[in-house]
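User: I'm putting together a teaching handout on how multi-component assemblies are represented. Below are the sequence lines for each component of a complex, exactly as they appear in our records. Could you produce the 3D structure of the whole assembly as structure tokens, so the students can see both representations side by side? Please keep the chain order the same as the input.
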Amino acid sequence: MSHYPFSSVTTNLERRRRLGPGALVWAGFDGPQAPGALLDAIRDGRVGGLLLFAFRGNIRGKEQVRAMLSEAQEAARRGGHPPVPVGVDQEGGAVVRIAYRAAMPSAMAIGATGDTQLCERAARVVAEGLRADGIALNHAPVCDVNVEPRNPVIGTRAFGDDPRRVAAFAAAWVRGSEGAGVATSPKHFPGHGAADVDSHHEGVEIAADRGLLEKRELVPFRAAFAAGASAAMTGHLRFPALDASNIATLSRAILVDLLRNDIGFTGLLLTDSLDMSAIADLPGSSPVVARALNAGVDAVMVTSGIERQLAASDEILAGVRPRRVAEALRRATSFRERFGICVPQGDVDDAGARTAAREIAERAITHTGPPLPNLGGALRVAAAAPERGSPVEELADPLGTLESALRARLGDRVRFSRDGSAPDGEGPLAVCSSGAYLDEAQASRVRALIAGGGILCALRSPYDAKVAPDRPALLTYGDVPASMNALAAVLAGDAPPRGTLPVKLG
Amino acid sequence: MRRRAFLAGAAGAAVAAACAPLAAPPPSAPPSTSPRVRDLLSGMSVGAKVGQLMSVAFHGRVITPAIEAMIRDRRVGGVILFKENFDDAASVRRLVVDLQRVAREAGTVPLFVSIDQEGGAVVRIGRGATVLPGQMALAATPDPAASVRRAVAITVRDLRAIGVNWNLAPVADVNDEPRNPVIQNRSFGSDAARVADLVRVAVSAYAENTFLCCAKHFPGHGSTTVDSHTGLPEIDADLAELRAVELVPFQAAIAADVPAIMSAHIRIPALDPTPDLPVTLSAAVMTGLLRETLGFRGITVTDDLEMAALRRTATEAESGVRAVIAGADYLLFRFDESAQAEGHRRLADASADGTLPVARLNASVTRLLEAKSRFGILDGAAPAGTPGAADDRAAALELARGSITLLRNAAVLPLRGRVLALAPPDPDIAVIEDQPTLGAALAAIRPDVAARSITLRPTSSEIAGAVAAARDADVVVVGTADANVNPEQATLVNALQAVRPTVVVSLRSPYDILATPNVAAYACAYTGREPSVRAACEVLAGMRKPAGRLPVAIPGAYALGAGMNDF
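Assistant: Of course. Below is the structure of the complete assembly, with chains in the same order as your input.
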């Protein structure tokens, strides 16, 4: 006798309608509503999840988002499937897709507060807002340790450059978001922070040995998984110490041997967008969707090209081992059971989110360099940065937000110039930069403007302070409205800078 | 009290078996006796013979004058060890070596050294030994027979290394009563045929390891609602029902040549209608049913003679004599030294005045000596090996992992967000040291978990405090221990579930869901010991998928074999 003839075994899995291999692929689309072909695929169980982006025109307002997702879930219901999960990148700071609810300051701003409780609260209120609109996966937190100041893609999206500090904040974010019912996907595994080029545009290689990875890159990921992250996202980078030939997204050594077997991650493993150049341009005939699944991912993000997304079933059937498909489908099904949600009735009050954003921003403003001049009187402000639009309307004009906030506090004692010149008049000069450290032309303008004295206001990268190290600097780590308002309060002499620098400026 | 309401679901196969005749009585030939045993017996005085019938317990961690006297002067057959006799495996071993030395120096037969090391709820040696999941947990694993064999092999390895030579296990009771206060998770389940199968596997495994075991509690303690430690439970089943349920595992044990069977202090009017007479003292049961009808030829052991079920009608010493006359071979005396001495005197008197016939006395002593011979006890071998080996501890964890049974999950597992964990520090019947609470075990995996201890019967202020703490959490985990018997636990859980999704992990019997029907998730760990608690936490945290299958039917809630394999 080895097995009892158990007769009435019931599992959730068996009660569910089966999903097809297409459900291992997540889809992005253009416009304010899901196209008909996508709705059909949702109905037929051939879509694993939906990805929303502002720049694709998916997010125009609360009512539109809710209507768009209600329609998608109605398609799932008609097909007898649970609601399809919906994911978005709502990190805070520079990566905010939905701004009709409060936009959080960046991860690095949160790191500058030094308060993990505040981080957990931020994650929670962001999650409550997302879930209220039917979105239950937030592609956050960034678990990368930003040890490379020239990193063009992570920067303020990281909590800092100290692995243990990043770990503590990442875990707090996971706890807050997951606790409010929104899945997190710590990213970009196994760590994008040491990169000095953007994997959206080209191949990136991290030359760290296993010992260094263990002490640096992997620390926040381990903490995030221990805090209960339901998903994880791979990065399109190469780690020769772990896999000599494949980027992480396509590496069994990294995704199975390291992530599953060594670290013990059991949740849903997602790829970063497969449309990024680093992966889209890979040589070789083998289809990338199949390669990623074979390497161990459970959900492949195809953010553009709906035809390609819908054709993925055949590619998977042809190129992925059946047991691997079954395993990934099991995880996809479990994940969907919990994080596929209908658009709820009613709404949440955003007041809590706005308060949290304001509090973080106020506690994040960091002063570096020589002492600040006396503030509270007249003030001149010059913008050294080029105007940069954002697809998110509410975030499109940070300088305008800053100017309004200063006017509210100082009235006509502030003179504000946005043409790259220093305004005439009295009072100290504040020079606003936005990524000058990686932009030599901007850096020259900053140096010229501040040559006669003044305060550097780094609206995005804290490394801008290195452009004019002999001048006092105020760092905001991002230019969401809450951060601009907090900066205005400091420049108007109404509040002290309270943040602590979460990275080394060197 | 009786199980009829759910017999149909729980024991269908066993009901069918009720129509089959019991095993035919064996030929009445006397047991074959080895020359060595014959020589020993012939050299014994009456005092030495009646001493052999006695097992005694004693206070203290070293040889006391009292226990030395019982060995030297009364020539007792053995000792039974309890928690208070040692700190850890190494100190038991020293004590056992000393006890056997006293026996050797007194020129008496080497001692039986027995213990209740069932695994799970009833474990006496914790520190330094391998703490195994209990029988119900083993029955819940994907391959119960292999799990039982593995657990027996580990138990034997540990006990042999410590010098204990008799384990008072396995429990052969069919637990089909959710309110049973004393058997519960110690049983292999609620289905007689499956329990019988695993009892046979366990008995065979002890035999393969040449180690003395004992099936208990004959004729079956599983359907009682009273603990015989505190009262006299009664089972009102008729003989057909007993044959269909309670007796089935004992028949299997006997068929597997079990060397010993322990009687229960319960009353079964269908077997012996004498008022207030527990089966331990009933010749109709201990001799008529067990020996003559079922054909058992091994040692019959009484349960503890100090238990309340017996003390209602007789002193410990009187009960001892009556039990032997009824058919018992080996009497478990507890700590009371005067009762032990009086028991010995009364047995000797009964032999002298013919109340206890010489042939009857000799038959019992022969059976006891035969067991000592067959299991190597007469050879006086020193303890061998190291208890609590790392491999065995790893195996215990593996067994526990196979047992965790997830019965409900309304999208709260794996645990996410802010977790509050509440659990009693000592959820098991027998307390041993160094066992983490469920909360501590969870915090070892999820460092941000807030863990609190609760009592087995939480007070209203404790409940109010827990509810207040729950408001700061996203999800609450509660470890329960017999919420049906301790209704305050159900009050706590229901109050928590009203404010936050609450996950219940039952740390004893699987029936707690009946008292907490609205919880968001429900898992059975079957035991509150380290391996099971850790394995349960791994499932709660999503590190592992649940693998266990329910080895009981939970009336009105879950069928035998229920269990989710995913979240």
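A couple of points students might notice: Chain B touches chain A at residues 142-146, 194, 197, 201, 409, 411, 414-418, 445-448, 474-475, 541-544, 549, 559-567 (CB under 8 Å). Residues 1-30 of chain B have pLDDT under 50 and may be disordered.
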